[in-house]
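Quick one: Ribosomal protein L11 methyltransferase from Lentihominibacter faecis, structure tokens please.
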Amino acid sequence: MRYLELKIQASEQGVEQITALLLGMGITEMSIDDPHDMDDILQKKHEYGWDYIEDDLKENLDREPVISLYFDEADPKAQQMAVMVKDGILALQRRQQAGEFGQQADLGSLTVTENIVDDGDWKDKWKEFFKPTKVTDRIVVKPTWEEYTPKEDELVIEIDPGMAFGTGTHETTSLCMKLMEKYLGEHPEEKKILDVGCGSGILSICGALLGSREILGIEIDEDAVRVAHENVEENHVEDAVKVMQGDLTKGVDFKADVIVANLMADLVMLLSEDARKHLTEDGIFISSGILVEKEEMVSAAIREAGFRIVEIAEDGEWCAIAAVPEV
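--- reply ---
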């Protein structure tokens, strides 16, 4: 098969804006080549047992991050989506030139390049940039094809996202994992978890490794459901984690102590009212995928749905919100 490849260059701040734009279009299949990620790895090379780093890798750090997208050349809808993406980037360029993002904002060059490629040229290319990532003191996310020797008490999540969103390296996912670890408490085995929009299944797996024995992951995309099932089996948590295809919580009969939803701002707001119905009285609703600039709007919707916000965690341009039912 042949694909239209779009490569978008931007600053780290620009990547946040573009990611939000793409997620808003329903695009979750992307690779982000951020040289700063490699910089973090170089800083921790001894943790990975590396004594030598090739010079060309070091030289590769002095450049902008690159977002890569691929669209089926034979699919008219995919080609239409590619045009929408290019129009969206052009709109970001105009907004930046007009100063809409503030004087201190720098989205980078926002350069788009196009190529026609065969699927064999790109489908595994992104794996070069997905390395073991330490999310918290205990949680490590490791791609299935990488070697990693865990330290004592570390929980290692084996993940192969395939074409599903969720590698653990994105701020929205890591924010969720940090809040899950915090609010599952001392007796996670007593807590049921509902993972809405589970993608690759990474948060469901995280919940199981933290100790929860009953987790339901819901995902609307059929391919992502398949990937999630594979990742659940890879981590040997199939006794605790069940994954089903569905649209948010529609038709779901499940009462949870923890609801986690790594979605988008609009979907979090849409989910909030239903989340209240699926949560126990002393449960907690953790949501992410929310740009900091939309934090107040989403917080207001969550409060209106009958929640009290107990914590807002931020990482870069993204935030996660933890809320409990208002009594």
